[in-house]
Design brief:
Layout: H1 2-35, H2 40-54, H3 57-63, H4 73-99, H5 102-108, H6 111-122, H7 133-147, H8 154-180, H9 184-206, H10 219-246, H11 248-252, H12 257-270, H13 276-301
Helix pairs in contact: 1-10, 1-12, 2-9, 2-10, 4-8, 4-9, 5-12, 6-7, 6-8, 7-13, 9-10, 12-13
Length: 329
Amino acid sequence: MAGRSCYRDVLPFTAMVTMESTNVGLNTLFKAATNSGMSYHVFVVYSYSIAALALLPAPFISHRSRRLPPLNFSIMSKILLLGLIGSSSQIMGYTGISYSSPTLASAISNLVPAFTFILAIIFRLEEVALKSRSSQAKIIGTIVSLAASNPDWVIGGLLITAEYILVTLWYIVQARIMKEYPNELTVIFFYNVIVSIVAAIVGLITERDPNAWRLRPDMSLVSILCSGLLNSLLNNSVHTWTLRVKGPVYVTMFKPLSIAIAVVMGVTFLGDTLYLGSLLGAAIISVGFYTVLWGKAKEESGDDSGADSLESPSSNKAPLLQTYKTENV
């Protein structure tokens, strides 16, 4: 029981907090690199290409598995859709950060739990019983987290908002893919390849200066390497695994935590001004965040009366590299 609790609760929680902290750090590093003249179109192409190269062995290993379904047209078309959504969100997000700041990006990420919660209900990945205390906690926590969002820059804010709407769709599509093909590394490999190709096409159209594509041993190269290995590879793989273990709503509820981390990093590394509103916003977000976690814990423990969530069945005990098993009906 202790091992199962650690796998189902402690490990996903620790992984998500670590990844959100890493993401904010990478956004701060990206902002510093763009301030020195790096093109965000070039950044996306190179970072996702590095991740794809690192994951190149994954499809060959999974191809030998007899417990995984074949990569048929249905699965590949969904991965293609995932790549189109991901590339669009990345380009919009990095463009928005270049116009604004990592703190603003983290603030607007508070929209993700609300969007995902609504879409999860629509796509039947989450059920809500209004008389259930756990459902009420998730709804109230989502609203409280959403209320703390306060965009300050118009252009950057609009682009980052569009990014997180697409991120919401990304989580939903990825959750569907994991049900059909539960192998994170292979899916993320093809996803990175698609994002690299789409970003390269867009970059070649928008970035005509050949010098912008030349890599130099400076902050830009450090940012590309860190983003490729820690974000495009590790972060996407961990998010995909947590999506399968805990569901999309659980994953997105960690997004609001990034604003508190972004405020600290922005003040420390970018010289941003620390406002009282930022501190109050972080406190409000924390209340909403822990309210939703309490609701999810009550729901999964079965202590609450009401509908059980379809996104986090208690029988799901998938490891990081889950094998596919055909069930006899």
